[in-house]
Predict the 3D structure of the following.
Amino acid sequence: MPRPIQAIIHTESLRHNLARARAAAPDARIWAVVKANAYGHGIERVYEGLRGADGFALIDLDEAQRVRHLGWRGPILLLEGVFEQRDLELCSRLGLWHAVHCDEQIDMLATHKTNVPHRVFLKMNSGMNRLGFTPERYRAAWTRLNLLPQVEEISLMTHFADADGPQGIAQQMAVFNAVTQDLPGERTVANSAATLRHTAGGPLQKPDLAAQVAGDWVRPGIMVYGGSPDYPEYDAAHWGIQPAMTLQARIIGVQEMAVGAALGYGSSFVAEQATRIGIVACGYADGYPRLCPTGTPVLVDGQRSRTLGRVSMDMLVVDLAHLPEAGMGSMVTLWGKAGNGAVVSIDEVAAKAGTVGWELICALSLRVPVVVDPAPETNASR
Ligand SMILES: *Cc1c(COP(=O)(O)O)cnc(C)c1O
């Protein structure tokens, strides 16, 4: 029998979350962001749930090929553009749209031989200081691209550093608007946090900015997978989004601990009263964070409980003190939803580990078997 651990990808939740993004920005088109193998879910596994998007945004050319291989004929955007000259050949061949964030990428385009002119997204560094042309150099880059026969259409793009926090988006939006005001082309600026918080209907919307934040395309990532972009200020339930991934494993051992008995490596948990504990077939080698301390929430047979002691490589321990029915074979939901509909969000677990939901789902280990629910008619997963 295989080790009793499994991840489940919920196709209906992906569809629901995508619809939630659409409701937040009804006049924009949607890039479903599927970089990092669809945030650890598997591009092939999320395709059915996300094919209602208007395009797929990602980073690896290999992933772009996989999306085309699934039969997607619509837009695909390379969020970081190309990494070397010959990547442009693949862009021409597969009709990939690509970000242009530096002079080197324009140089590559200028010497690229193609009879299919490219759609490019010119990226501005409006304050995040990661990728993009500074506001001072942006228009010169636009002009240079506009003169290239290899370029068919230029869209305008930037990325927010603080859409999820108190600083917000106003300053970066003002920089972007000032520079791009009279430039033609479609615009895309919003990640999940901006899409939920700063578009019309969002709690932090400014009426004069909301439509510009939605722009022509929004780029939701984490919200599509059911993670809240601004936990703990707002949780996934508040945003009306559902977990797209469940990680679950069974209890494979039960121990009775006496008062004063210690648990696991480092003996970090000591029983203050006699108690029952369950040993679960999930550890940090499966992608469950070792940094989750005693008290991290889990569901045991759909009932809330908590972890105890240190997470080890292949096992972790849950509290069964208040769950007399639970025992050998009980199903433990590490994140996602249980059979009874109860949810423990990636955000809650991540917060306990001092990280964010993004990191948890992206780090699901290869050794965890993954199934798609409902099972696809043809076996498209790999
Ligand atoms: C990853 C990414 C997104 C999606 O971000 P989320 O916070 O997960 O919604 C949007 N735009 C760009 C450029 C990205 O790299």
The longest strand covers residues 245-257. The two ends are 21 Å apart (CA to CA). The domain at 11-227 is CATH 3.20.20.10 (TIM Barrel). The chain has two domains: 11-227, 245-344.
